[in-house]
C-alpha cells in the first residue's frame, strides 16, 4: 500500500470512529492527518518527477552513446587514413595541387584532375643520395686509408 493510500485509510478510520475535531486532541489529530496527507502528496509528486528525470536521462544517455560511437568510429577511420602515405605535387600546366598515394606513384604518372595534363614521375632520384656530397661515389676516388695500406705493404 502506498503512503498516500495509508493516509487516506487513516482519515477514513478517524471518521469511522467519530473523532471529535472540536476537542483539543481531535484538533491536533486532524492537523497531523492533514500534514501527513500533504507530505504524501508531495512525495508522490517527487516520485513522478524522478521518473520523468530518469526517462530524460536515459534518452540523453542513448544520444550520448550515439555521439561517442560516431566520434570514436571517425577517429578510428582517421587513424586508418593516417597510416597511408599521401604525396603531393603541383601541375606545371594549371598550377593545381594534386594529391595521390603510393600506388599512383608506382604507376609513374597521373592525370591532373583539373586540366587533364599527364604528369610523369621520375623515381630514379628517390633512391637516396643524388651524388651532391660524394658520399655515394662509385669508389673511383682514392680512399686515403687505401693509400696508407699500400704504403705499409712496400
SSE order and pairing:
Elements: H1 3-16, H2 24-83, E1 86-90, E2 97-101, H3 102-107, E3 109-111, E4 118-120, H4 144-153
Antiparallel strand pairs: 1-2, 3-4
Question: Mind explaining what this structure looks like?
Answer:
The protein is mainly α and 154 residues long. Helices cover 58% and strands 10% of the residues. It has four helices and four strands, in the order H-H-E-E-H-E-E-H. A two-stranded antiparallel sheet has the order 1-2. A two-stranded antiparallel ribbon has the order 3-4. It is rod-shaped and about 115 Å long. The termini are far apart. The relative contact order is 0.05. About 4% of the residues have low confidence.
- The global form is rod-shaped
Q: What string, H for helix and E for strand, traces the elements in order?
A: HHEEHEEH
Radius of gyration: 45 Å
Mean pLDDT: 79
Unreliable spans are 139-144
Sheet having the most strands: 2 strands, antiparallel
| Order of neighbouring strands in the sheet with most strands | 1-2
Task: Please bin the fraction of helical residues.
Answer: 55-70%
Distance between the termini: 117 Å
Secondary structure tally: strands: 4
Output the structural class. mainly alpha
Total helices: the number is: 4
Strand content: 5-15%
Short description:
The chain has 154 residues and is mostly helical. The protein contains four helices and four strands; from the N terminus they run ααββαββα.
Key features?
154 residues; mainly alpha; two-stranded antiparallel ribbon; 4 helices; 58% helix; rod-shaped
Amino acid at each position: 500500500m502506498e503512503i498516500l493510500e495509508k493516509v487516506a485509510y487513516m482519515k477514513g478510520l478517524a471518521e469511522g470512529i467519530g473523532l471529535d475535531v472540536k476537542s483539543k486532541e481531535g484538533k491536533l489529530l486532524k492537523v497531523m492527518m492533514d500534514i501527513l496527507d500533504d507530505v504524501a502528496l508531495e512525495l508522490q509528486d517527487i516520485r513522478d518527477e524522478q521518473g520523468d528525470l530518469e526517462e530524460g536521462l536515459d534518452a540523453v544517455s542513448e544520444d550520448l552513446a550515439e555521439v561517442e560511437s560516431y566520434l570514436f568510429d571517425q577517429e578510428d577511420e582517421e587513424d586508418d587514413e593516417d597510416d597511408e602515405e599521401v604525396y603531393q605535387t603541383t601541375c606545371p600546366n594549371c598550377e593545381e595541387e594534386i594529391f595521390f598515394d603510393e600506388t599512383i606513384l608506382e604507376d609513374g604518372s597521373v592525370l591532373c584532375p583539373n586540366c587533364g595534363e599527364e604528369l610523369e614521375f621520375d623515381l630514379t632520384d628517390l633512391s637516396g643520395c643524388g651524388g651532391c656530397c660524394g658520399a655515394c661515389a662509385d669508389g673511383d676516388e682514392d680512399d686515403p686509408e687505401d693509400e696508407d695500406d699500400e704504403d705499409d705493404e712496400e
